[in-house]
Write a structure and sequence with these properties.
By secondary structure, this protein is an all-beta fold. The protein is 0% helix and 50% strand. It has no helices and eleven strands. The strands form two sheets. Strands 2, 4, 5, 6, 9, 10 and 11 form a seven-stranded mixed sheet that branches. A four-stranded antiparallel sheet has the order 1-3-8-7, with no helix packed on it. Strand 9 and strand 10 form a beta hairpin.
């Protein structure tokens, strides 16, 4: 069974930074692309960023220049570095392993203005 777990969320002031982590169990991580999504209250879940198994990345226009996705295969972990946070970044952030469509439980990020 595959387990995916996010961590690193919290409360931060606008303009601040947070780093989220996504840890995945087993060898599935090394052959899998990973994504971050977020869901704000009353809104649909939206895609934030993707990193492929060979390290190619893409981020949504809403976070471009502020968020960076990366991964450490040795630790079976992906990261989302979030800088210059805005109040509209407030959401629950989810990690997803694309192959198999495995999701974590999410971690709350709250940005105070």
């Amino acid at each position: 069974q595959v387990h995916v777990k996010e961590s690193g969320g919290g409360l931060v002031q606008a303009g601040g930074s947070l780093s989220l982590s996504c840890a995945a169990s087993g060898s599935i991580f090394s052959t899998n692309s990973m994504e971050w999504y977020r869901q704000a209250p009353g809104k649909q879940r939206e895609w934030v960023a993707t990193i492929t198994r060979i390290g190619l990345t893409a981020v949504s226009d809403s976070v471009k220049g502020r968020f960076t996705i990366s991964r450490d295969a040795a630790k079976n972990t992906a990261y989302l570095q979030m800088n210059s946070l805005k109040a509209e970044d407030t959401a629950v952030y989810y990690c997803r392993l694309i192959t198999g469509d495995y999701w974590g439980q999410g971690t709350q990020v709250t940005v105070s203005s």
